[in-house]
TrEMBL record:
Belongs to the site-specific recombinase resolvase family. GO terms for molecular function: DNA binding; DNA strand exchange activity. PANTHER family: DNA-INVERTASE FROM LAMBDOID PROPHAGE, SERINE RECOMBINASE PINE-RELATED. Keywords: DNA integration, DNA recombination, DNA-binding. The active site is at residue 32. The keyword DNA-binding applies. GO terms for biological process: DNA integration. Residues 24-157 form the Resolvase/invertase-type recombinase catalytic domain. The keyword DNA-binding applies. It holds the Pfam family Resolvase. This is DNA invertase.
Amino acid sequence: MSDLPEPSGHPELLVAEPLVRTEIKIGYARVSTGGQKLERQIDALTAAGCRKIFSDKKSGKTDLRPELKACHAFLDAGDTLVVPSLDRYGRSLQDLINMVAALRDRGIGFTSLHENLDTTTPGGRLVFHVFAALAEFIRELIVQGTREGLAAARARGRVGGRPTVATEEVIKAARDLLPNPGRSITSIAKLLGVSAGTLYNHIPDLRELRAVPRQLDATER
């Protein structure tokens, strides 16, 4: 048994896949601007044997990806979701880990063609286990760096280290921490030296970021 840290609330990524598989592959493609073309991604997914393909023309940084939600809702236990590459699916490493873990919890496989990753194989599950450990390590570095920054601010006489306006670095750190279900918005704000209201004011999609983890409900699948 590996001693690598497991994301809170996520299923063990190294356990065996469900015994019954439908062999049905469903594809998802995405381009981030209207000027980009989907054809190459769709051709790759078709060649991979996808029976149905969903596609979005949205930035990965926004949650407004209706076709992804429709794709998640369409998938059944035993199916496999296929994407052209990891960056076409997840907005960040943590987002990717959360969604793949949620798929596994539903008995759904995941394959990324460009990276040749397949969670229906032991090797693919091992890679995602390492990804999960890396995501946890990055979160710990963010927390450690923030604490050190606050300590330095206090030493310079800034009580609490709280900035009057949230900086770009604070907002980025908050966006990285918000998908973690183990931390409340209030605790994240306190850690970063700002108020919860500041996070709400500076992160328009805050509620969507909080809804990403663990498992996907009917509107998110």
